[in-house]
Design brief:
190 residues, mainly alpha, Four Helix Bundle (Hemerythrin (Met), subunit A), 8 helices, 83% helix, 0% strand
């Protein structure tokens, strides 16, 4: 695996974790409006359109173009207050979204191990990440994360690495360092 591939895989994992998080919020909104579309208020339709818009971009970012196109259809229907389109198209989109969420969940489970492959190496790399974040050295921090990605980790460790990577993607070095430091402490006491 090249460094470019590892970085791309880690970025996709972070996006996928974000989609899981967002889908948990969006699905109930879309369901509620769809089921009660004839009585939906203007504000509920606006929230529906915003929710569809958010999923449209997120799905496109992980290559789920068909689902992204469906989300665009829902977004337009919400903005136009097209209640018939909302009623007919939402179940199709929700089916696709649930399928994607299930697939991401399965992939996440497959990536995780029973225990961390090399706890000493993990501790060393986490310290390197924390130190790099303290000096705003994104290259070193990303390289350490890419090194860790090549190994087997528990779901908890993968989630932490995803969060750190997400903060680095947003150039939020302080938050990346804080998450890293907290996890270092948790590892020391476990």
């Amino acid at each position: 695996m090249t460094k470019e591939t590892a970085g791309t895989n880690l970025a996709n994992m972070t996006l996928q974790e974000a989609i899981l998080h967002d889908a948990k919020k969006v699905i109930p909104i879309l369901e509620e409006v769809s089921e009660n579309v004839q009585n939906a208020t203007e504000e509920e339709l606006r929230s529906y359109a915003i929710s569809a818009h958010g999923m449209k971009g997120a799905l496109a970012n992980i290559g789920e173009t068909e689902a992204s196109k469906l989300a665009l259809t829902l977004e337009k229907a919400g903005k136009a207050q097209d209640r018939d389109a909302i009623k007919s198209e939402t179940p199709i989109f929700l089916g696709a979204l649930r399928s994607i969420v299930a697939k991401i969940g399965e992939e996440s489970e497959q990536r995780s191990a029973e225990k961390d492959e090399d706890p000493a190496y993990l501790a060393e790399r986490l310290e390197k990440i924390r130190s790099a974040c303290a000096s705003y050295d994104i290259r070193t921090a990303k390289a350490a994360i890419e090194d860790l990605e090549k190994m087997s980790w528990t779901k908890k460790t993968i989630t932490v690495l995803d969060r750190i990577s997400g903060h680095l993607l947003n150039s939020d070095f302080e938050e990346a360092a804080a998450v890293t430091s907290l996890y270092q402490k948790l590892l020391r006491y476990s």
